[in-house]
Amino acid sequence: MSEPLDLKEQIFLLDKLPGFYKTLSSNSLNGFNYTNDDSNFKSPRNSFQVIKDIPEYFELEYKQLPKNIKHVTVEQYPGFSISFEGINDVNDYLKTRFGNSSRYKLRRSIKKLEASFDIKYKMYYGEMSKEEYDFIFKKFFRLLELRSIEKGILDNINIKRSDYFYKKFYPLILQKRASLFVIYNGDNPIDICLNYHNNSIVYQFIRTYDIAYSKFNTGYIDLIKQIEWCINNNIDFIDFSFGTYYWKKRWCNTSYKHNYHIFYNSKSLLSIIKSKVYVSKIKIKHVLRERGLIDKYHVKKQKLKNTIKPLKKTEIKISNIDFNVEVNIGDEINIYETEHHFIKKTVYDFLFNFNANEKDIKVYEVLDTSNKYLIIGNENKVIIDAIFNS
């Protein structure tokens, strides 16, 4: 059996239609058209082909297939997206999804982030040096790896394909068929989103961020800034693909279905059997997914993995102290050095909680104790106690 082909990857990344289709278009998207230049069709003999993750807003015209080539369509998971029809600016859109209190919290997150760090936003689209690309891509997959570990995902398929993506995406960015949106603290990327593009559509492929900044909700800030960019650049539609997460339901104003197309050779008994087995399998998965049983399975499976391969963690205890209390401190430490990375998130939480700026805080070892540190700002200070668990 051939590996299933992801239709979005085929058209966005490889710029081609699988051989079964003549054209692809969408009435809801301006300028979204693909034509299959290859008029030849090679009939499978004893196997079959699966085309997966086909959004229902894709309108596919089949080639004139041989009579023995049949196909079945099977519905799978929902997808989520944002349509900008009738939207004038980012605030206009946020008003359609969030109440006053939620919009205030989002604005506060942006203000806190920009007040605490040297923040800049950059969309790499059509122009990017190779040096910038190499630096950001390396950082991107390191952040994705750390985020995956935090979430308990030990076998992220996108990380396994990092070398493949690295080779593919740079020319696509120069051709305006892909982009990298980056939030920087100084020269350090702290939130990165990799997108596909086609005229009026942006497809958010992989998103990740530095977990040390999680208190600042950089993922939501990333969304706001990209929505703003899309509206300013006449984008009609952002596709966040499948994965039923709370944030997608909250932020997205449209949803759609993904389908699978299963092609098989009706003159081959083996091909018929394979297709029936495959169709039955994904129909069962769809039912289980609808009932929430697949999510429960993955949770239990991950707990088992974590039991077998426990991750080393550091527990941090925080004690607020009066600013005027003297503490017996040793040398100042650099939280950006590898051996001190475990307290960086706690330091950034301190910045968020006390509206402090990164350049105004210092961190010291506390003498006569083990693994205790003092964080001190202009008006506040705390002692943190690091407990290493293995």
Structure write-up:
The chain has helices at residues 7-13, 90-97, 100-116, 130-151, 157-160, 162-174, 218-232, 246-251, 269-290, 293-308, 344-354, and strands spanning 5-6, 21-25, 33-35, 48-55, 59-62, 69-83, 119-124, 178-185, 188-198, 201-209, 237-242, 254-265, 313-321, 329-332, 362-366, 372-376, 381-389. The protein folds into 3 domains: 5-76 and 255-295, no CATH class; 86-235, Gcn5-related N-acetyltransferase (GNAT) (Aminopeptidase), CATH 3.40.630.30; 313-389, no CATH class. The two termini are 43 Å apart. The longest helix has 22 residues, at 130-151. Residues 306-311 have low confidence and may be disordered. By secondary structure, the chain is an alpha+beta fold. A 9-stranded mixed β-sheet has the order 1-4-12-6-11-10-9-8-7, with helices on both faces. A hairpin with a 2-residue loop joins strand 9 (188-198) and strand 10.
Topology, element by element:
Layout: E1 5-6, H1 7-13, E2 21-25, E3 33-35, E4 48-55, E5 59-62, E6 69-83, H2 90-97, H3 100-116, E7 119-124, H4 130-151, H5 157-160, H6 162-174, E8 178-185, E9 188-198, E10 201-209, H7 218-232, E11 237-242, H8 246-251, E12 254-265, H9 269-290, H10 293-308, E13 313-321, E14 329-332, H11 344-354, E15 362-366, E16 372-376, E17 381-389
